[in-house]
Amino acid sequence: MNVDATTEPAYATGAPTRTPARGRWIHGWDAEDVQQWEGGGRTIAQRNLRWSIGCEFLGFVVWQLWSIVVVYLPAAGFHFSSSELFWLISVPSLVGATLRIPYTFMVARFGGRNWTVVSALLLLAPTTGLAVCVANPGTPFGAMLAVAALAGLGGGNFASSMANITYFFPAREKGWALGLNAAGGNLGAAVAQLMVPVAVTAFAAGTLKLPLAGLLWVPLILGAAWGAWKYMDNLSSAKSDIAGSLACLREPHLWILALLYVGTFGSFIGFSAVFPKLIVDTFGPHVGFSLGAATISLAFLGALVGSLARPWGGRLADRWGGARVTVACFAVLALTALTQMLTLPLGSFPLFIGLFLVLFAAAGAGNGSTYRMIPVVFAVRARNQGAASQRAVSSARRASAALGLISALGAYGGFLVPQVLNASRLASGSYAGAFIGFVAAYLLLMGLTWFVYLRRSPTSLAGI
């Protein structure tokens, strides 16, 4: 293992030496080589993981900024309709989901370190753009929507971050590393929904300084980009797997698993985005805890609970099987959504938020269990196909490509959830119709999971 001689001195297998250098590339990386891994490879991988988590965390922060900013727009003098506010909430998820597809291939094209720096610096556009737009109540809706769309850059970061980290770790430690990377990023949604209210009200001495919602993150973005530039590495062994991507597109289970991920991760990111507005619409703007003259919404608890539940879903899937855990999560999601719909007329905030926290926990655990199913499904499919699979793209390569594509497709749920809620409100003046739709969707996805992955038949993949 060595570093490009044009940028850093070469080093042999064992504990590497390193000096800060622009464009640093590592050649001969093999995480499965135990001697190399124990001789310094682990240290390099963990260092890259820490900075990857930091940058991805800020990506999720930016991705979710508009979910909390829209709550303050009326008080800041903006006169947008409820439908327009829902578009400001949902369009970052639409753009972020779409960007996840090309972002998956950027690591192999430009290098993990290089792309992490670039993708972090790109976050300056939506944060500074937000600050400029919300400073003037006369900003037209089209301009606001365009800047909200830029927040989708943060959603794309997940795909490139996960693609980069998967190259650094051996198979025996890859699951835990990717779980930490994903959970660390997901926590950004909770932190954004906690810190934005603090910044725009409490830090502003009780007044409303909405531009701080964007400017607050600029120093952190610059610091993360600098850290990635100084401490991360590029791996020359990271290659785009176009053949693997094309092969997994022909695999029917890719589309089934993507549907399941829409139901789990899509619910998490969609409800995270819309939760602050749901609280305000249902109970008013002054529900939360007091911090000085400011009222801080409890909406951040949803994303926090969902983020913390994700690795536990993966761990339960390791023990009981991903399909069993996913079925259980969909059952809890359906029951909770039904209970929420039936109890909304009671006007009980503790019941409302308690049920939503259960929903977030089930969605978060479902994220982990569904994601854990992907490599298992592809491995079982390869085994069942026997010799034919040896002539095709390996199951490992197809599974790796599928992870990126499914994460992209699942993120579209972040657009669908707010839009379904908006359509329900426009049609009936309440959110009850949307919750009926969610219950039906969760039951269908639960049945699909059982039928394909638990039902014992010659054509099913029972026991995954």
Describe this structure in words.
This protein has 464 residues and is an all-alpha fold. The protein has two domains: 1-12 and 23-240, Up-down Bundle (Growth Hormone, Chain: A); 241-464, MFS general substrate transporter like domains (Growth Hormone, Chain: A, Up-down Bundle). It is 75% helix and 3% strand. It is built from 19 helices and five strands. The protein has helices at 34-63, 65-72, 82-110, 112-122, 124-134, 141-150, 152-168, 171-202, 212-215, 218-231, 242-249, 252-283, 300-320, 322-343, 349-385, 387-391, 395-411, 413-428, 432-453; strands at residues 2-3, 25-27, 234-235, 289-291, 294-296. A three-stranded mixed beta sheet has the order 1-2-3. A two-stranded antiparallel sheet has the order 4-5. Strand 4 (289-291) and strand 5 (294-296) form a beta hairpin. Helix 3 packs antiparallel against helix 4 (112-122), helix 3 (82-110) packs antiparallel against helix 17 and helix 3 (82-110) packs antiparallel against helix 18 (413-428). It is globular, with a radius of gyration of 22 Å. The protein starts with a strand and ends in an 11-residue tail after the last helix. The model is unreliable at 5-21 and 387-392 (pLDDT under 50).
